[in-house]
Amino acid sequence: MTTTLDRIDRHILSLLQQDARISISDLAERVGLTPTPCSRRVRQLEQSGLIERQVVLLDQKAAGLPMTVLVQVSLEAQTKDKLEAFEQAVAALPQVMECYLITGSAADYILKIVVPDLDHYQQLLLDRITALPGINGVISNFVLRQPIRKTALPLP
What we know:
By secondary structure, this protein is an alpha+beta fold. Helices cover 37% and strands 19% of the residues.
């Protein structure tokens, strides 16, 4: 679903992506509205599904999860049932932060996993991921550094 946004909606979304805790009165002042119409616009953006949810971003290292692993997973078969079963299984793993079904590679999925250290990753890999039915292969890519980390979408 694509929502048509005017200049004020884009400005509201840009400000909310920078700081979701901004008060309605501060938000309204910064976009040039009074609080009531600004609040109404935010509510409409939420109801349209454009604002999916509001979250707090944690410092991964400070949270005790300094290691990020990008894991390429190949399945034995790519049927709808096998894909859905895999997705449900990895969704249940709290260490899996993101899961992408991909094309253009030998892998079927890329998982973004966070763990405290290599030992925890090895245990997760051996006990949980490779133990899933239908796994054909796994390639682990260890992130050395993350020079870019964005959460705000570039609005047109």
